[in-house]
Specification:
The protein is α/β, with parallel strands linked by helices and about 325 residues long. Helices cover about 30% and strands about 30% of the residues. The chain is globular and about 55 Å long.
Length: about 325
């Protein structure tokens, strides 16, 4: 009996010793997981009365949780790297008062550099009706702007519409990809009982995840919509929450003046121009998993007064 207990004890000790010996090997195998290169667009900003300093690669910190990632490239989006695909999407359910803002949008379009391709589309019935494909003819893009229909349509959702655009985005892999959505963010496509409280539409997350996967930054400008929903406090606020979140997770800017019509879009568009003029193309190494997916990353710097904005997550390919 005693010898059996002794044997069992010896076996247990041997198993523990094997586990201890294998632990460093398994940790080494985990740390040796293949790293893949990931590309993102990052926007730098400073206070309005400050001058943007020169930002060097050594000034940039990329983190995944508490782990610092290896930065492999940091290039200003200018010169040979200035290419930009910019879609301006207008909600066809917007109030006709948006017409007073069209000249500001036209001036913004015409002021873009030749390296920016501009497309114009209208969101209706969960799709985008493209009135001007991406083009460097900015005059043609400006002419493609028109008054919104002021109709909610049978299936009006700005989030499903932008998903539709992303899925058929033209292939210009060398260019940055960005969207300016002009909408109240109200999803008029959802039927059934509605909870009378503040909440985030699940299609916001779907659109945000798809945009992050495709490296697309979405900026949003609030404008009131037509019909009764824009007069409903819950619907209007939920719409504004939705577009604000969509911009935040994709690294974009969201502009609004409460639930009112802004006097002019020009201050918004001037600020957006600063955003486009202060972007960087960044590459860094991330350990891949067994499956491709979004992985959370963050950017920071110790340069005084400088802030970075970028998408919450990067799409990381699966390891081979």
């Amino acid at each position: 009996m005693k010898s059996q207990r002794t044997m069992k004890l010896c076996i247990a000790l041997a198993m523990m010793a094997e586990l201890v010996a294998l632990a460093p090997l398994r940790a080494q195998e985990a740390s040796a997981a293949p790293a893949v290169s990931v590309s993102m667009t990052v926007t730098a900003s400073v206070a309005e009365n400050k001058t943007m300093p020169e930002i060097k690669p050594q000034d940039v910190i990329v983190n995944q949780g508490k782990q610092r990632l290896q930065l492999t490239d940091w290039v200003r989006a200018g010169g040979d790297h200035a290419g930009l695909d910019l879609f301006i999407l207008i909600d066809d359910s917007a109030n006709s008062s948006l017409g007073s803002q069209l000249d500001d949008l036209r001036a913004f379009i015409k002021s873009q550099p030749s390296t920016t391709l501009i497309g114009v589309g209208y969101m209706q019935n969960a799709v985008v009706k493209v009135s001007q494909d991406l083009t460097d003819d900015h005059g043609a893009a400006a002419k493609a702007l028109r008054l919104p229909l002021g109709s909610v349509g049978a299936y009006g959702s700005p989030y499903l519409s932008v998903i539709n655009l992303i899925k058929r985005w033209p292939a210009h892999p060398q260019n940055r990809r960005e969207v300016i959505m002009v909408t109240d963010g109200v999803d008029r496509a959802r039927g059934g009982p509605q909870w009378p409280g503040l909440s985030i539409n699940p299609d916001v997350d779907s659109a945000g995840n798809l945009a992050q996967r495709n490296g697309i930054i979405i900026h949003t400008i609030y404008t009131p919509g037509a019909g009764r929903m824009h007069r409903n406090f819950y619907e209007a606020n939920n719409g504004q929450l939705g577009i604000a979140k969509l911009s935040d997770v994709t690294g974009g800017q969201s502009y609004f003046l409460g639930l009112q019509d802004p006097v002019s879009f020009k201050p918004y568009l001037d600020d957006l121009q600063k955003v486009l003029d202060n972007q960087y193309l960044v590459k860094f190494a991330v350990k891949s998993g067994k499956k491709a997916g979004l992985q959370y990353v963050s950017f920071s710097t110790e340069l005084a007064g400088v802030e970075f904005s970028a998408a919450n997550s990067a799409w990381v390919a699966a390891g081979k």
